[in-house]
């Protein structure tokens, strides 16, 4: 049944840990985080490396209790995390499968995770066929072509393989793949990673256009101030697994109540401050 609520993500005092094992001590990635994402809202998630951003994003995408690349298995050990009405702390396999159909996930370094033996078209369409093997191939081809065009890649690229295209192009293929199921919620961990600086603006415009067209909600991680400022309605700031800022970007940065947020405010001011061009009126050089 399609999700019909107004709040697509509701974290209430949620605490997430990586259990001890294989010679490692237990590690608390998130500690008592409370935030919500409303239907149609684009929420930014920012913070230093190791602050818990990627762990939170992966858990929201339904990967709680499952091994993450390069990590152990994150577990919710306190509080509540509800996504599209489902309590993730007690999520059964069938409910997890339904949830991942509704949530599009772009993991960190997604462009590197494309299947090397699949063409670009096969990589983008794979999530559909994994769920519906008998899905009409002609219709799927149309959806793939539409998304490829949306992320501003030529249709001739459909028959190419990941190793034949650039890292930035692979990232855009990964974005298309994460949106092929027309998700209610899109979770994107560094969506512009590997994308050439000159192509980032068009990619961000594409994301906004797709969101406007399909009205999905989003949780977007980015270390780039310009990306967060361009894409998001509100931001959540994590530091050491704790939530230290939440609200509209301008509100959070204008009234920083934590030392880490004060540092961010200066960084964002430098990046987003408009460039003042010299007044050349009357200059006849």
From TrEMBL:
Protein's UniProt keywords contain Isomerase: no
Keyword ATP-binding on entry: yes
Residue ranges occupied by any ABC transporter domain in the UniProt entry: 9-265
Keywords: ATP-binding, Nucleotide-binding, Transport
Family: Belongs to the ABC transporter superfamily.
Protein name: ABC transporter domain-containing protein
